[in-house]
Design brief:
single chain; Outer membrane efflux proteins (OEP); 4-stranded antiparallel sheet; 10 helices; transmembrane; MdtP/NodT-like; palmitate; transmembrane beta strand
């Protein structure tokens, strides 16, 4: 029936189509980033041949770290906000889908009405039982079912639904990004605390050495064997170590508070963090980068979904220039007197096919299309910049890890040399060829070197986690074909 109606309506409406609003200005879409810009420079090489796993932190085999991340994933407000955004986007999809479907409602109405003596029902303003007039006051009634359906001939509603679905997919990718940032943040703070614990251990050993040296210098001074200058130098060195110990201990307090706030828990709910050895660097990293990075980074996936949704909104804005068709129907009872409402003669049936032609709208449709196009181009440029930033992050983090690895190796070689000097001084002390103070003085540079190595190892661990984040963690989403957004952009040119 609808098809026959359209066949009859379209020839009648064709003469009016020429009077529809016309697209005056529509710029082409912005160009999306070229594939060669999603690659690392030739002088930057990543270590291994694989990508991080979904639960990358479990590869560290650290129960404390696993528990802290799970606690954060369950309680962090930032993640809760991201999940609410997903729920809100889903509700928007359902709302737009509902608007595109059949709308029906049950109607019931009673009206106390005074009939005008000069209106359309003027005959009923007087009392004339022969024509059914008992005026001028009446109780009128209406009851029935009403339905309305918009015929989406040009696909406008489908475009809006696809745009809402793209928005929902973007919010899901943003939720994955929030999870990634949360897990990375917890791990970096945790390993920062472990690095601080290791530094405190070395500092305490160094303090014992400086304290013994001060005692030795003090005894010598008291026996007139040494000037007070050496004693004061030793005292200053000990005070410097005490200051460093106090500052380092305060770093643990600050880091715990940062971790508590990030996890979204109270001080009592955050478990104690006991010292644990730093892990050996073992990140799973790809050897090269390409389009694979786009599917691995949740923030890039979110941007791609938003670009895809913007194309659908442009299509919907274009469809608004075309005529729209709808059908409204009513079946029920309508009577001037309530006692006649449900009689057979009071039945009322309405079937109203409608056609709306946009002709003069003051530029509203063109402004709407221009706004949709501008928003889309802005999203494309933001996406392009996000891709460039992603490649930059991977390049910088990978290069930083290479630099830290070289520095760790050099520091280890330096420690080997210092250990040889310290062992030689200790051996001379045991054989009576040197005193205890001389042996301890030779050990001090070794402890200072170990402290520097601990800090370098901690920096390397934190930088490795930063690279895992730059690679998208273990996220992977192939719901949106890789070149689909690019293809849609080319089609719109």
């Amino acid at each position: 029936m609808t098809y026959r109606f359209l066949r009859q309506l379209v020839p009648i409406a064709l003469p009016f189509f020429a009077a529809c609003a016309i697209v005056h200005h529509d710029s082409p879409p912005a160009a999306m980033i070229a594939p060669q810009q999603i690659q690392l420079a030739d002088d930057i090489h990543l270590a291994n041949q694989d990508w991080p796993s979904a639960r990358w932190w479990e590869q560290r085999h650290d129960r404390q770290l696993n528990g802290l991340i799970e606690l954060a994933l369950a309680n962090a407000p930032t993640l809760a906000i991201a999940r609410e955004h997903v729920s809100q986007a889903h509700a928007q999809v359902e709302l737009i889908r509902a608007a595109a479907g059949l709308q029906s409602a049950a109607l019931a109405e009673a009206d106390r009405e005074h009939v005008s003596g000069h209106g359309f029902l003027s005959a009923y303003a007087s009392h004339d039982p022969e024509i059914g007039a008992y005026g001028p006051w009446y109780w009128t009634g209406l009851v029935g079912l009403e339905g309305h359906y918009d015929l989406d001939v040009w696909g406008k509603q489908n475009d809006l639904v696809r745009a809402a679905l793209g928005e929902q997919s973007a919010r899901r990718a943003e939720e994955a990004q929030a999870e990634l940032e949360l897990s990375v943040g917890v791990a970096q703070i945790y390993y920062g605390i472990q690095t601080t614990y290791a530094s405190l251990g070395v500092l305490r050993q160094l303090r014992e050495l400086r304290a013994f040296e001060l005692d030795t210098r003090t005894a010598r001074h008291e026996h007139g064997l040494e000037a007070s200058t050496q004693m004061e130098v030793a005292r200053a060195q000990l005070l410097a170590i005490d200051q460093q110990l106090a500052s380092t201990s305060e770093q643990v307090v600050h880091a715990r508070e940062a971790l508590r706030a990030l996890a979204g828990v109270s001080s009592g709910d955050l478990p104690p963090i006991v010292p644990a050895p730093l892990p050996v660097p073992s990140a799973a990293l790809p050897s090269t980068l390409s389009y694979e990075l786009l599917a691995r980074r949740p923030d890039l996936q979110a941007m791609r979904w938003l670009v895809q949704a913007s194309f659908d909104r442009i299509d919907a804005a274009k469809a608004a220039f075309y005529p729209s068709f709808d059908i409204t129907a009513f079946f029920g009872f309508n009577a001037l007197r309530m006692r006649d409402l449900f009689t057979h003669s009071s039945q009322q049936i309405n079937l109203i096919p409608g056609l709306t032609l946009p002709i003069f709208d003051g530029g509203r449709l063109n402004a709407n299309l221009h706004g949709a196009r501008t928003s889309s181009n802005t999203l494309i440029e933001q996406y392009n910049q996000a891709v460039l930033d992603a490649v930059r992050d991977v390049a910088q983090d990978g290069s930083a890890i290479d630099d830290l690895e070289r520095r760790v190796q050099l520091q280890q070689q330096r420690l080997d040399a210092l250990a040889l000097v310290s062992d030689s001084a200790e051996a001379r002390y045991r054989t009576g060829l040197a005193d205890r103070a001389t042996a301890l003085q030779a050990r001090a540079p070794l402890l200072e070197g170990r402290l520097a190595l601990v800090e370098l190892s901690g920096d390397e661990t934190v930088q490795e986690i930063a690279l895992i984040k730059a690679l998208g963690g273990g996220y992977r989403n192939e719901d949106l074909p890789l070149a689909q957004a690019e293809r849609r952009a080319q089609q719109a040119r």
